[in-house]
Amino acid sequence: MTAPPARAPLLLGVRHHGPGSARAVRAALAAARPAAVLVEGPAEADALAGLAADPDMRPPVALLAHAADDPGRAAFWPFAAFSPEWTALRWALDVGVPVRFADLPAAHTLAADPTWGDGDEDADDAAPAPDPLAELARAAGHEDPERWWEDAVELREGGGADPLAPFEALAEAMTVLRERHGSAVRPRDLVREAHMRLRLRAARKEFGDRIVVVCGAWHVPALALRTTVAADRALLKGLPKVRTELTWVPWTHRRLARRSGYGAGITAPGWYGHLFAAPDRPVERWMTRAAGLLREADHPVSTAHVIEAVRLAEGLAALRGRPRPGLDETTDAVRAVLCGGSDVSLGLVRDRLVIGDDLGEVPAGAPAVPLQRDLTRLQKSLRLKPEADGRDLDLDLRGGTDAARSRLLHRLRLLGVDWGEPAPGRSGTGTFREGWRLSWQPELHVRVAEAGVWGTTVESAATARAAFLARTADTLREVTDLAERCLLAGLGDALPAVLGALADRAALDTDAARLADALPALARALRYGDVRGTDTAALAGVALGVAERICVGLPAACAGLAPAAAEAMRDRLDAVHTAIALLPDPKPDPGTEPDPKPGSGSDPGPGPGPGPAPDPPSEADAVPGPGLLSDRWAGTLRRLAGGERVAGVVRGRAARTLFDGGLAGTRETGRTMGLALSPAVPPAEAAAWIDGFAGGAGGGLPLVHDERLFALLDAWLGAVPDEVFPAVLPLLRRTFGGYDPGVRRALGELAARGPGAAVPAAAAPGFAAEPDAARADAVLPLLRLVLGPEVPA
Amino acid sequence: MTVSETIAEPGAGVVTDTGPGGLRPAAEVLRPHAEDAFAHELAALAAADDRPRPARWRLSPRAVATYLLGGTLPDGTVITPKYVGPRRIVEVAVTTLATDRALLLLGVPGTAKTWLSEHLAAAVSGDSTLLVQGTAGTGEEAVRYGWNYARLLAEGPGRAALVPSPVLRAMERGATARVEELTRMPADVQDALITILSEKTLPVPELAEEVQAVPGFNLIATANDRDRGVNELSSALRRRFNTVVLPLPATAEDEVAIVARRVDQLGRSLELPAVPDGVAEIRRVVTVFRELRDGVTADGRTRLKSPSGTLSTAEAISVVTGGLALAAHFGDGVLRPSDTAAGILGAVVRDPAHDRVVWQEYLETVVRGRDGWQDFYRACREVGP
To answer: Which GO terms describe its molecular function (chain B) (predicted)?
Structure first.
């Protein structure tokens, strides 16, 4: 097969990451056997092209360009194994043909507009503003451009005898499209194409006319255009420029699939990879892989299922008039046959196969990732040397450098680079002190390189990783911890993602106990945020939402608990009570749900006052209107204290909390106590109630100091009938036995005074009404002797 | 959307077996079968259809899909859409039948399962009456065969004394049999289908013979996937089916339209007075149902727990109709939140422990803060615990 010289140089228009394009490019290269290959990609990458042939290089990988002095400004050119550009690159390297990158140098791309940043630069190659594929698809009578392209190009295997024919047809179609949309071509494209033409001319001068260019189909007509060197130079003149550095970084299928960042993003990298890699029978192989995956997840999937799925996929393709089953048909068949109609198990196939978990590898010889540079820069500016031997570091978070150091260490920990371990500080445990133990191990360099996939600076990488962790966390607990860590690391940008995940987990968590476990950490995080001056309004909103859900769900969660579980619940009750006291009460508009239009409209807003109800007074009385969180929590406590099926220890603690907070008076508490300690109540239950009411961390001190409390208990104890008393005694002993000896003695003395003296506000026995100053002064000489002579003022 | 057709036709979901004689309905029936009601469309499709047809199919698979999804034929005949929903669902269903696999239509009540199955059978076999209605009392003879005992006693066992089930008749004729509410049948009756579906034969041991299905035989079953206390399909039986899950209406607007239309029809047949401005309340009921069903608020910003009930469109219709009756007979004729609150509560709280928490969380975290929903919040707090 000979390529007529008139056609040289050969322009191969492709769709980025199209396996059919890749196959066609391979065939075309083999047929044309060019003297050199030009590939769309930043011109500076020529020096790095050789690494693509390194045995340790495994796609998906990306060319990463970043500004030398600002690693945050970076751009990516991803390549998968099934990318036509990668195929061309590998073919050229394997055959030993020189290969060049033709696109505008990254120096200009990065200098022009930092927002081109994360890979937007390729957005328009196959799909510029007026989507040329959509145009072509519509012309061919197809609604879905992706599907049309798949049918017309990607699913066709080696159909025609001439491997170059499809490219010619595509070039013609693109030429027509560009003529029609000439004005819509973005200025940036014109500049890029001018540069590509210049590179093409240079290559022709060097290698002759037998050159193959692999570029986005959209650019083919522009490269075929006859322009003058001077015109192209003029377009490129005066472009801003920054010093850039390039390297290869590992990439993932998941990031290839990302719709946002990489413009030419593809929805199904796993499927395309499979189409490219499968030697034959792609549908059968695909179904077998799906079945294997589902079997691993314990779905009963047999070989008979696979057979039926393949039949259904082929039947669907026939019904829809497609040449072969595409992704739509296989997905429909997998859903109907292998997944029993369930979108849940289909989700597994989508996630693991259609997108896939493939992670690329880059040889050790590739230049250092920008993340490492950023880290080195930070280490220098913060005067933190990476030393192998452990050393302790005490940080005062009020200082600028120390706060920055703390943030850096926390961010590195989020990235899995455990340079510092939190250690108890030497000087106190205040919230503005933080202790670390630093130890830089050689493998941490590897960790930094691995973390390079998350971003180019420590901050952006930690943000991206935090958002990822939030998405994939299983339990509410993990997400609350993550939120705390984000605050510690000062990752304000990651907070929305983490808080979104947090709100979702909280809403779906059916266990009020888990919510109760999460709330204290949230309240704590709010306080940290305050110390570090982070904006915590969103966090407060989420914390309030969690508190709200606890108010609703806690009474049900406290019913029918075993003794040990009830004890744990009592502790949670205390923790939640403390945490709720720390939470800011919502402003007039209860912001428990992120309402897009707070307080808008004519509605006066949900206040406890008369709402728009027709007859406010009676309704407002019957139905407690929307109120403050503290009121709602008090209501929950009341429901707990009076709950029939709530465990005794929890009821007692709720009653005590109400009493301490002044929310329940002596009479009400007495009634609650009387009910809880009635003879009809099983003794164990009654003792648990007393334990909840009077036991716990605070010991019996409040009983000693609060006469009202003691009088209540005493009155009840006095009223216990003699025959019941022996049954109650051991239980009371259990509660009171835990007190300090001093408290016990004081209680004993109080009890010895008898119920008559239980209203002794005026005078305790042995005390006069007024202090006797003379007698008090008598002790002073002895004190002077003990404490030493008075220091002269 | 998907349920519109069921709802547009009162009683679409209630199909009665025409009995062993397969009696054709007289001209004036409350509701004619699909193959009679749309006979002209089927005839036009068959005339225009030049694609290959599977054995004993009246139409090619592509024509069946057109019959269900609607379209215009070359001769100008307009085919009305029978199923308004994702095209994919119909294509998978038709292809399943064409590849000789049994089809299982799953979905909550009111997703047009029965409607779709009837029209599939009508288009494929021209006969939608080979129907087994699954209930807890459905016996094996409804799936296999029964006996005419008078004959059995008089003449002894023989083919003449055998009373074939709809499934058996479909096997003999190469037609499409339908099984409604498959999961309501006792498990042992369900399992009688396994041999029929895998071996395509039905042994009759009493006569020492068997009935072998002729090409064209297939089976469409429908089942409710959200109901509790049903007889789950054994994995052996499940394996014989390709499963298609019919979705609920895709958008709130579609659902509001369906509910409003159906409520209007029901209201007229119940002779309720017309409601001046019920759409706002209908929208609210649909919003509540959709949000709880989907587990996320309409603005997509807050996740919610879902209650155990199905909260289908059909239930929204009954809540609104009940509210209308309340408003008409006991209220001032205007549909107010207080009229629908009790109905919504009853639909949402099916499981007293779990659903109550779900409902209260929804009330407190979503309804309470929503603009213009204060009346509704109060009404719910009044009827609620």
So the answer is: ATP binding; ATP hydrolysis activity
pLDDT at B8 over 50: no
- The string of pLDDT tens digits covering residues A34-53 is 899 999 888 888 888 888 88
**Is residue A729 a part of any domain in this protein?**
yes
Residue A777 within a domain: no
Asked whether A119 and A261 are in contact (CB, 8 A), the reply is yes
* A144 close to B (CB below 8 A): no
Low-confidence ranges of chain A (pLDDT < 70): 1-8, 113-134, 141-146, 153-161, 182-184, 258-265, 424-431, 528-535, 585-627, 678-679, 683, 696-702, 705-706, 708-709, 712, 719, 731, 754-769, 789-793
**Residue B295, number of CB atoms within 10 A of its CB:** 16
Q: Find chain A residues with C-beta within 8 A of B297's C-beta.
A: 593
Domain extent at residue A678: 665-754
Residue A506 lies in a domain: no
Complex ipTM above 0.90?
A: no
Amino acid at A376: T
> According to the model, what pLDDT value does residue B24 have?
47
What backbone phi and psi angles, to 5 degrees, belong to A374? -60, -40
Sort out which chain B residues have CB atoms less than 8 A from A340's CB and list them. 238, 243
Name the minimum distance, in Å, from the CA of A630 to any CA of chain B: 14
State whether A304 and B239 contact (CB < 8 Å): yes
Question: Does the beta carbon of A578 lie under 8 angstroms from any beta carbon of chain B?
Answer: no
Residue B330: the pLDDT is 82
Is A209 found in the same domain as A112?
yes
Does the beta carbon of A635 lie under 8 angstroms from any beta carbon of chain B?
no
When the pLDDT of each residue in chain A is averaged and rounded to a whole number, the result is 77
**Nearest CA distance, A628 vs chain B (angstrom):** 12
Residue A764 to residue A758: CA distance in whole angstroms: 10
- Asked if A597 is an interface residue toward chain B (Cβ–Cβ < 8 A), one would say yes
- CA atoms within a 13 Å half-sphere pointing along the CA-CB vector of A502: 33
Considering the domain boundaries, does residue A329 fall inside one?
yes
Contact B239/A at CB under 8 A: yes
Which of B242, B365, B378 lies closest to A593 in CB terms?
B365
| B301 CB within 8 Å of a chain A CB | yes
* CB-based contacts of B266, cutoff 8 Å, min separation 6: B317, B321
